[in-house]
Automatic annotation (TrEMBL):
One of its GO terms (molecular function) is metal ion binding. The lineage of its organism: Bacteria, Pseudomonadati, Pseudomonadota, Betaproteobacteria, Burkholderiales. Pfam families: DmmA-like_C, DmmA-like_N. Residues 126-169 form the Dimethylamine monooxygenase subunit DmmA-like C-terminal domain. Residues 6-111 form the Dimethylamine monooxygenase subunit DmmA-like N-terminal domain. It comes from the Bacteria. Keywords: 2Fe-2S, Flavoprotein, Iron, Iron-sulfur, Metal-binding, Oxidoreductase. This is Uncharacterized protein.
Length: 187
């Protein structure tokens, strides 16, 4: 999906950073083709450790497997406490996943350029309700009900890097009860 909105992230294929001293490839939900391309591009990153959700075997390096994204992110947090200068993280997967990785990196003072992001797989969105501040996960439609305040939200194409989410605003604020037909846009 393309947008003229400049807040919308743009992604480039992952490439190994020759200045890195420790490299982690963190992935969840990426297509097999994108994962293979990323592993090939990162093959020059030594040593490379792969952190992956699911049982997909890696040819790129030592692999840590996790049952779900929550488990991977929970394991990544204490590992980042012990990270050394020169750490590089390459994240591949859905936007909510890769931006969760970016947020963790920032929390542990990794520079933005030390955490490379590439989108692959599902287009589902994390939507932030501007009314009650709830983060709604896995949104696939342009209109979605907020899990917090139950308002019908219009999912804007505005992306907040700080919140790692798209903005959701009440769709019928001016004309209560007048809702557009939801469309599946983010599968």
């Amino acid at each position: 999906m393309t947008s003229t909105n400049t807040s919308r992230p743009t992604y480039v294929p992952l490439e190994a950073d020759p200045h890195g001293t420790q490299h982690w490839f963190v992935t969840s939900g990426a297509t097999d083709a994108d994962r293979a391309r990323a592993e090939d591009a990162l093959s020059r990153a030594v040593p490379l450790e792969v952190w992956a959700v699911g049982a997909v075997a890696s040819q790129a390096g030592a692999e840590r497997r996790f049952d779900d994204e929550g488990a991977l992110l929970a394991a990544l947090e204490p590992a980042l406490r012990d990270a050394k200068i020169g750490m590089r993280i390459y994240a591949l997967g859905s936007e909510p996943f890769i931006w969760s990785v970016r947020q963790l990196g920032e929390r542990f003072a990794l520079a933005r350029e030390a955490v490379k992001l590439a989108h692959s797989g599902s287009l589902h969105r994390r939507v932030y309700c501007i009314h009650c501040r709830t983060l709604n996960e896995g949104v696939t439609t342009n209109v979605a009900e907020c899990g917090g305040c139950k308002r019908s939200l219009f999912v804007r194409d505005h992306f907040s890097r700080r919140l790692a989410a798209f903005m959701g605003v009440q769709v019928d604020a001016e004309k209560p009860g007048e809702l557009p037909q939801p469309e599946q846009l983010y599968l």
